[in-house]
Design brief:
alpha+beta, three-stranded antiparallel beta sheet, 2 helices, 3 strands, 20% strand, elongated
Length: 95
């Protein structure tokens, strides 16, 4: 940079929100993205430590408190709590 270089001034300009119902801006509250965001905000991820240090991931509904999805499934967690469970022992292939 030269010692006497000319630097142009920077100006700020206001940004106004789009008018409601305008064809160019639209309204976020009526858009599909808004509906998807509201639906996603309804759920939360809960991570718990299960038996033998295994992590259990639960997707819960914030409104009802219901568990929507759980990994690993509840039946697998119940199997893990038995004394004779080991990885790969879910199916007995011996006749």
């Amino acid at each position: 940079m030269q010692p006497n270089a000319k630097i142009d001034a920077v100006t700020a300009s206001a940004i106004l929100p789009a008018a409601a119902g305008s064809a160019t801006g639209g309204d976020f509250h009526d858009s599909r993205a808004s509906q998807d965001a509201e639906r996603a905000a309804r759920y939360r991820l809960v991570i718990e430590e299960g038996p033998s240090g295994l992590f259990i991931y639960k997707t819960m509904d914030r409104v009802t408190g219901e568990v929507v999805k759980q990994l690993p499934r509840e039946q697998v967690v119940d199997l893990m709590q038995t004394g004779d469970y080991s990885s790969g022992s879910v199916i007995n292939t011996t006749a």
